[in-house]
Amino acid sequence: MILIKMEPSRKKPKKGDVFVIQxxxxxxxxxxxxxxxxxxxxxxxxxxxxxxxxxxxxxxSIEIPNDLxxxxxxxxxxxxxxxxxxxxxxxTIGNISINEDDIIKDYGFQFLEKELYFTxxxxxxxxxxxxxxxxxxxSYGSVSxxxxxxxxxxxxxxxxxxxxxxxxxxxxxxxxxxDEIFTGENLIKVKKVxxxxxxxxxxxxxxxxxxxxxxxxxxxxxxxxKLDEEEDYFIETMEREELCDSIHKxxxxxxxxxxxxxxxxxxxx
Length: 269
Fold this sequence. Notes:
Blueprint: E1 17-24, E2 27-35, E3 50-54, E4 78-80, H1 83-86, E5 91-95, E6 107-110, E7 117-118, E8 124-125, E9 131-134, H2 140-153, H3 156-159, H4 184-202, H5 210-230, H6 237-254
Parallel strand pairs: 6-9
Antiparallel strand pairs: 1-2, 1-5, 2-3, 3-4, 6-7, 7-8
Helix pairs in contact: 4-5, 4-6, 5-6
C-alpha cells in the first residue's frame, strides 16, 4: 500500500502542524509535527529535520479531532524530511498548541538491528524505550511502510470505521517514486557523504575560520557532483534544495556567517 497523493506544498512544516495521510481512499489518519529543526550533532543526516507522531485515529473527514494527542500512536515516532509535504503525501490542515504533558515520554529510536537506542538528538538511551522507531532519516516512504504494516496487523482499525475494501492494494508495487532520493542504496550513499562532511566540520574545532568551513563545503558539494554522475543524475530539483539546506545548516552550526547559497560556486546538480 502506498499513501495516496493529495496536494503538494512547498511550505515548510512548523511545530504543532497537524497533517493527514491517506492510506486508502477517503480515510485519513492524523499526524502532528512535534519538533522541527532537530539538533543532532552526531548525525548530519538527521540534523535539521522533523519529528512526527501519527495517531491511531482514523476518520472520513479532515477535521482535527478533539484531544488528538491523547490517542495512541498508529506508527512509532518518525524522523522525516520535507518530502512528504513537498510531494503531497502529507497534507497540513491546521496547527495546534502542543501540551508537553500530551507528548509520549517513553520513546526512542533503535540503531539498525543492534541493541542501541537513541533520542532524535542522538543521545544514547540506557534501555529500550516502550515505543521504538528506527534511528535514521525517513520520508513518506518509511511512513507508508509502517502504516501498511500497522493496518495489515490490525485490520480492525479500518473495519471499525466501516472500511470494507482490501487492505493489500494493487498500488503495492513500489513504495517510492523514481525521483525519491532518500531511499534504498541512494540513502546509504547520500548519508555517507553527509556524515563525512559533518565529521570534517567537527575536526575544525572551536572558532574555525570562514575559509576553512568553506573548504569543507566545497568538498561535500564536489562529492555530491561525483555521486550524482555515478548514479545517473538522480538529484532533482526538490532533492537539490533539501541537500543544499542540509549543507548550509551544518555549516551555520559550525560558525558560518554567510546566509546566501554556499553551494552554487561548485554545484553541478
